[in-house]
Amino acid sequence: MKLTVLKEYLNESIQHVSKAISSKTTIPILTGIKIDVDSTGMTLTASDTDISIQSFIPMEKNEIQVIDLKQSGSVVLPSKFFVEIIRKLPAQHVEIEVKDHFQTTIRSGSSEIQLVGLDPEEYPIMPGIEENKSVQIPSDLLKTMIKQTSLAVSTNEATPILTGILWTIAGGKLKFTACDRHRLATRETNVDTDPDFTLNNISISGKTLNELSKILPDQNALIEIVFAENQVLFKMSNILFYTRILDGTYPDTSKLIPQAYQTELVVDTQKLTEAIDRAYLLSREEKTNIVKLVMREDSTLEISSSSSELGKVTEELDTFSLTGELLRISFNSKYMLDALKVMDSEQIQIGFTGAMQPIIIRPEEGANLLQLILPYRTTG
Amino acid sequence: MKLTVLKEYLNESIQHVSKAISSKTTIPILTGIKIDVDSTGMTLTASDTDISIQSFIPMEKNEIQVIDLKQSGSVVLPSKFFVEIIRKLPAQHVEIEVKDHFQTTIRSGSSEIQLVGLDPEEYPIMPGIEENKSVQIPSDLLKTMIKQTSLAVSTNEATPILTGILWTIAGGKLKFTACDRHRLATRETNVDTDPDFTLNNISISGKTLNELSKILPDQNALIEIVFAENQVLFKMSNILFYTRILDGTYPDTSKLIPQAYQTELVVDTQKLTEAIDRAYLLSREEKTNIVKLVMREDSTLEISSSSSELGKVTEELDTFSLTGELLRISFNSKYMLDALKVMDSEQIQIGFTGAMQPIIIRPEEGANLLQLILPYRTTG
């Protein structure tokens, strides 16, 4: 293998695939990045067995010659050092040459780096995925859906299935669901598929989807998502992102969401967020994050928290509307802040069915997004 | 005590004094910020016994009324919560009212915060400092001198005196010296004092001086520095910064610096820094940071590092001049990078007196700054 490649392109590819490298892997070959070069271009691969990422560098892009190929071939290079040194090379061109026993030489300007390469034959082969089940979603929308639901994913490894976001497709709608024992988030969108196409019990690690978010392009490109037996493949321009489907059966959460509310209010999203944030600051000192909401006759809200040692925060807030029974309800202010921060409308609706029942937060318009928080059982 | 103050000014003052608050203090009153209000303005004080910072907010500034005073008084408020809540208050004006038993109420817009205040009588009194020994230095210059020497301060608490920067004044020159067992940094400047004014054995914690740097104004204001028995006071506009002088006698380091060189070279600062940085990346993986410098007949340098597991980095570098005996010398590349990063000239001079003797790095012009690094004793 011998080629010259533009540093800028190589660097970008390395940054993409390096998100799949785990420092904790027990499989030595996976501490490396696999490089394959042929007449079509250069492919970089990294994997931690849960995630695998492939990034492709074409020979030419926008009429610029990116790669000057001398000889095809493959090698695996130690990722940690490789990632850092390429970024710091002095010249715009990087020459990579692999000789016997995968001894690799990297040259750029007045720098010469010798690297002990590993045998690419030892590197695991990427899963074969048939493209019979797939959908396409705009990149921005996918990022937003991940952000709006991943906050509710469980961090408790004792219930692995709940560390994922559940993907379901039915009737032309794609829905994300995430929940732990204290909260639930759902987000729905229309997708352009056969109305008979359904998808059940596909749960993908929330952490993995957050990693995916980081490499999803900012431009509103369509991302093709292919569902196979155990794997899901996200296809971006020049990047393939493979991830495992979590084992187990995702619980039915539909019954948790009330069908009608006893009390409903509409408030300014930002003002509520700021008021709860101040009450949260004090509640955090008590380690409980308990904040109390009291609804008043004059349709205003009192939001408060207190600490026996430090004192008390009291906030007053106007509502746009307040209907139904006036409640006093306590909740985890951190969870409420997480939910409020992913609301994408200036006003929000909050629905209650009693002081001990779930709190439902939705954007004022549009029923695509729902956040549910269980209240605290407190007295007074 | 009762007053209204503009949030922006209160916030700025809090940010300044909060640098003196230690979360590890065993003296409960020192977890608070002391507030004193009288007809001249508001003074905030914070201290961790090593450092004390006072910040003053005047009644008026630039013809804006900053404080509206209703009643003078003092209180100590719990710093952690106070610092955060003030920043997040909803309105531009903040009302602070202290009632019986130091119960404090803070009001801003629709927020009301009750805080359990502490008795200001329990707060330690700031050290009295006579102004008979003082110098004035421009803020920028003081920051630069701290940056250029603090890198060489010892982090080993077993020799407390070496965790400080030594300040000496003689013949109208102020000199900073810092050293640990492996390196030494000195920086000198002219100061406008009586030529008979001398200062010896004043060592001030490097950590403290770095904290001071953060609040030194960016505008090139003159900072007055007052030296007392055990304390040094830095006087900025509206801020007083007190710090302890370290106990013990600072060792004589003058004999460490060679008077003449066997080999001298001049190189481009940035190119040398980048070449050593690449060699450092590999040497770091070996935990030794060893980088080797070889001088060649043609006046070029070879800089290299190697790792038995990963490979080798080799860098070639031109010099502007290379005189004297050609050496091979090994050193800690991390220390070299630290020294190179504070050089303020495009070219630097490096002086050697043998492969086992100190390496001296200086800016190409100006003898005010000197960095010394001891080489590694290696074979080959």
Description:
Chains A, B: This is Beta sliding clamp. Chains A, B: Keywords: Cytoplasm, DNA replication, DNA-binding, DNA-directed DNA polymerase, Nucleotidyltransferase, Transferase. Chains A, B: It is found in: Cytoplasm. 2 copies of one chain form a homodimer. The first copy, chain A, is an alpha+beta fold. Chain A has helices at 7-17, 79-87, 139-150, 206-215, 269-285, 333-341, and strands spanning 2-6, 32-38, 41-47, 51-58, 60-61, 64-65, 67-71, 73-78, 93-98, 103-108, 111-116, 134-138, 164-170, 173-179, 183-190, 199-205, 222-227, 231-236, 239-244, 263-268, 290-295, 300-307, 311-318, 321-324, 328-332, 347-352, 359-363, 369-373. The mean pLDDT of chain A is 95. Chain A binds chain B through residues 78, 80-81, 84-85, 88-90, 104, 110-116, 274-275, 277-278, 281-282, 285, 309-317, and chain B through 78, 80-81, 84-85, 88-90, 104, 110-116, 274-275, 277-278, 281-282, 285, 309-317.
Set out the fold topology:
The structure is a homodimer of 380-residue chains.
Chain A: E1 2-6, H1 7-17, E2 32-38, E3 41-47, E4 51-58, E5 60-61, E6 64-65, E7 67-71, E8 73-78, H2 79-87, E9 93-98, E10 103-108, E11 111-116, E12 134-138, H3 139-150, E13 164-170, E14 173-179, E15 183-190, E16 199-205, H4 206-215, E17 222-227, E18 231-236, E19 239-244, E20 263-268, H5 269-285, E21 290-295, E22 300-307, E23 311-318, E24 321-324, E25 328-332, H6 333-341, E26 347-352, E27 359-363, E28 369-373
Antiparallel strand pairs in A: 1-7, 1-9, 2-3, 2-8, 3-4, 4-19, 5-6, 9-10, 10-11, 12-17, 13-14, 13-16, 14-15, 15-28, 17-18, 18-19, 20-24, 20-26, 21-22, 21-25, 22-23, 26-27, 27-28
Helix pairs in contact in A: 3-4, 5-6
Domain DNA polymerase III beta sliding clamp N-terminal (chains A, B): 1-127
Keywords (chains A, B): Cytoplasm, DNA replication, DNA-binding, DNA-directed DNA polymerase, Nucleotidyltransferase, Transferase
Protein name (chains A, B): Beta sliding clamp
